[in-house]
Amino acid sequence: MYSCSDLRKGLKILLDGEPHVIAGFDFTKPGKGQALYKCKLRNMVTGSLFDRTYRSGESFEPASLEERSMQYLYKDESGYVFMDQKNYEQTILDENVLGDDKYFLIDNMDVEVLMFGERGIGITLPNFVNLRVTISDPWVKGDTAAGNSKPATVETGYTLSVPPFVEEGTLIQIDTRTGEYSTRVKE
Amino acid sequence: MDNLLTHKQEILKLRARIVQAIRAFFVAADFLEVETPQRIPTNAPEVQIIPQESGDWQLQTSPELAMKRLLAAGYSRIFQISHCWRKEERGSRHLPEFTLLEWYRAHCDYTRLMIDCEDLLRSVLPAQQFTYQEHSIDLKQPFERLSVDQAFSLYTDTTPRQAIADDRFDELIALTIEPRLGLQRPTILYDYPLELGALARNKPGQPYLAERFELYVAGLELANAFSELTDPQEQRQRFALDAKIIYTQSARPANFPEPFLKDLAQMPASAGIALGIDRLIMLLTNSSRIDQVVAFTPADL
What is the ipTM of this complex? Predict the structure, then answer.
């Protein structure tokens, strides 16, 4: 069990049966009054963010989470299917849980899946993925109004800004941490 | 060399200048600067303040006991700027070792200290106007005076008495009321329920109120003041009450500061106040975190 003095940013605790991470933390104490621990909590399953204040004397159950190396197999009506490479067990992650990470999944890609018991609640992607541009307007030479970037859509349906010289069919590298264009991939 | 300390240079220079201005203010008002020991046999037993032990003794959580003994000995206007220690206090506005300004006046009550607060802030900030975060604070007008009762009826759905019964008083003060205080000019929040004035005098004719006030500027709690309780018997009873709670909650035995209780019988009617220097520097340098206004935080050492 954790006590109030253990609370800090990044700590994972169990709240109403679900894992939550402390996304923001501050200690405060009115003059001669009791200590208050102001937390911004993120529900690690739903992603919802909310504030809660605790007082000294309260205790918290740690949320036991583990990361497992898995391979992304495919998407079907049940969700996104991953396979544990050690025991070949399959785990299905919901689209909501993945958020924008779903756009960076490529078949057979190795990822770390964050497990809360038997439930997958998130993934850690490789820092960079290569995806092919499927839609982007051609660049008209001399069109300065368009600036130094234009929108492009890649094969997974993700849309981002790319430099004018990136054409449809180009393989580009995307930084999964920021979701931004990184470089053109030579083939 | 380019590190955090280099970047702090401007703020630390301002800090030094403000501390000089504070000294000049008190000297001009005929106050005597005193230095009392920071390592003492025991602090006053207070439920919400955990002292830092130092061998068999403790580091002061505030210099108040020694300063009141000076009042009892006939010193009538004294001030001190000293380091104080409070265990387990660390946050964006809290450091376990911080700098406190305390001043005491004999033969007056807390209303005199309200005037001191106005004079002191105006004196350290000749511009009479400053901006803290998004709030523009004007020092020219009289500071707002708001009773705790008024603040509860303005900003909460309960009364101070009910909030204490529900164990919500501190929470409402810190999270609901405090952020709304002193946003255009400083606010003096006064007349606390008696339970919340451990060393404060009863308000005459108001058995449930203590003559205590806090000074707020831009939602930041800056100072805490009392008309001092001078009855050694009542002070001993209040210490006993707190010591019992401390022992039940944490098995910490609390010693009583006996020399202080003995001298208290000689202390004239007085008023005293503690003002957080670090927080004042935060305000005057527009710093959002206390870390920005001290050279080193515990993590830097």
Answer: 0.88
